[in-house]
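re: that chain from earlier
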Amino acid sequence: MKVEDSIALFLDYIATERRLSALTVRTYHDALMEFHKYLGNNHIELIEEIDSKAVREWQATLMEAGIVPRTVMKKISALKSWHKFLRKQGLAKGDIFAKVSTMKIDKKLPVFYKENEVSKLYTSETFPDTFEGERDKLLLRTLYETGMRRAEIAGLTEHNIDLSAMTIKVLGKRNKQRIIPIENELGQNIERYLALKKEISPDNESLFVTPKGKSLSTAQIYAIVKKYMSALSNADKISPHVFRHTFATGMLNEGANIDAVKELLGHSSLAATEIYTHVTREHLKDAYKHAHPRANGENNK
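^ sequence. v structure.
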């Protein structure tokens, strides 16, 4: 079978049967087409012609081009998933990745907003007294208090909100639903915002809309976060996802059970949540360093 045909088959599978997000499918597509181009330059057109050497040499080519190890391994991971699919379909034999070494990647701790930075989201002067101001206030507070992903918050509808139960129903990755509880103040924010939204966009069921009544896109949500948090925070990175890190880190720092945090975040495995325990330990070490009388090697006298 031709490599190009096998890639098309795999992409159709992950899009229609596994129902992965469009962004994930695009990530796989880009990595596989990049590999396909490399194979073509080396006169490899058929699946059976690909071996471990070809993969290792492509990996080396990527490193020589200055691509960081984390990105290289993401591309290799896409290739592994594709080739595993081909083996299950009987289109390829043998695991050619068994002899491809795994590169060592330094784990980066998640960036998060500081408590004094997010507290400014709750002061009256942060947001203008307009529909957009009320919407932006609710958007940022919801991100901070629920830990939702950008795509999840963009997909919220009015029907996802249950103010009687004080919960939000979230549709996460792979169409997995979860229920996130909310506190009274956020519920009141939602109620005020919905009253304003009813005047602007009575027919659009999306929760977050523009002044013209159109649903907010993920790009617009990113821009709103960038607009406010760039002025409020000194974090190395400003994005909606940093609110997710802030939510998880804050929950663990306050003693929340890691399994509960996992469920609230919608993680499929505990391993994805455990990275935040490292942030929590760093937070504790930092507090010790600044507060303990012997932390800097000083002797008590």
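Strands lie at 161-162, 167-171, 177-181.
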